Amino acid sequence: MDPVSGPSEGSRLVLVAGSGRSGTSTVSGALKYLGLHVPQPEIPASKSNPRGFFEPEWVIAFHRRHLSRAGVVLRDARPDAASRVEEVTLRPRPRAELSEWLSEQFAAAPELLVKDPRITWFLPLWSQTATALGVRPGFLTMLRHPAEVVGSKSTYYAHPGKHDADAKYTGATFTANWIAMMLVTERHTRDTDRAYVQYADLLTDWRATLGRAAETLRLSMRAGMDPAGVAEVDAFIDPSLHRVKVTWDDVDAPAPLKDLAEQVWQEVLRIVEADGHRPASSAALDQMAEAYADLYRAAEATTISTVDAAVRDARQRPQQGPGKGSGRGSAKGSATGSAKGSAMDGQQKGQRAGTPREAGSAPASAMARAAHLARRAGAKGRRVVAGWLSRVRRG
After folding, report:
1. What is the pLDDT of residues 164-177, one digit of tens each?
2. Are both 31 and 156 inside the same structural domain?
3. What predicted TM-score, i.e. pTM, was given to this entire model?
4. Alpha-carbon gap, residue 158 to 160, rounded angstroms
């Protein structure tokens, strides 16, 4: 790489954070049309996001690879998930890899926009790498009420054919994931240029909303928005995108979890009202992080007998041969699909990897997954298979 290429004076890096289904794609698309550069190529649009994701393919592959090494997934809810990733990315190789890529991108454009829902788990890495290159990063966190985020995820990420019993698992998991990701995002962006954008404000008055964000993040567009870009954003932002409107009454999750999520939400709103920084609120969120860790540990302790039983059954039950039950091929395919799904950080993407579910195969498939993961995790098998408990229970 040419040593003189890379960031120049005035280069800016904007990292879009926030839970998936909170408007991150909408704000990223708008900023792209207003002049920020999204590194190419981008992943294509899909049915869940027909207008595009605005996510660089390289970034997604980079994040997936290191999440896999850390044993963390996109919708992880463990209180220590971020620290697990940080242990992996503290090594010289990930930092050198990211530094080289960023330098190449800044050689092409002075203001970069990077968005990927997994970026929450990598915020220290991005911040420290950009700073080492002489670039002060800015963070734009999208905000949408957690009940709506959970409702939207349940709608767009749900598998066809799920049993009603899974609705509670999904609601609880997504709520816990929102809490974990919001706490991590706020903690790792305290001493930075950060802007919070509420999804409803973006849809109602994007000019004023993004104007304030551009001022906070010191973007060149604060001096004036390009008329052509404004017209593109007008055509791009559609208030009807606010399709899922639910309240906590519509979310099937334990009351203590919903109560804590609401407390986190209200405290973050106080930070927004204080223009992005409020030490008293940050301290309160640290206390909520401790409360969340206690709640999570209590849930683990409550279900430990079920987890132990699942691990024992998975290790002791032999895989059935062809012609019996779901068959060796079905179990093997399911376990392989699980590994791929974990690497791709999503239930939908696990299906795309080629893991069809056969009628009546759910219990065997769950046990095959549990056996596969328990073998990989060894003494930590109990935690690894906890995510499969809802399916195991159906067996």
Report:
1. 444 445 889 999 99
2. yes
3. 0.78
4. 6
